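Encoded backbone
================
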Amino acid sequence: MLMRREHSKLELFKKLQLKGYDDDVINSSISKLVEQNYQSDDRFAEDFIQMRFNQGKGPVKIALELKMRGISTFDLSTFDWFQLAKEIRQKKFGDASSLDYKETAQQKRFLQSRGFNLDQINQAF
């Protein structure tokens, strides 16, 4: 599994559990993988954040997805989320020269669904 892409410890545990392996065997195997540096939650988090950033996802959504994958410590501060929100909005909707309330609300909902916070959304306009 680790040859195709990075996985978090929790992802590996769940996948191996579904295949019917014993929990003790899974835990010891994952520990060996960590010791040999084949598995790293830090490396997984970095790759995952970069992938989602490139897909145009915001920090709120990325943080939630990482927590669901068992990652509790990560750094989202190295990216310019304000610029990304602006680029995503312009790519999807074009120039914001004359927007009525309905169009503005639609665009803000779209950015919110992408995982941007209110400050980032407001700066995109």
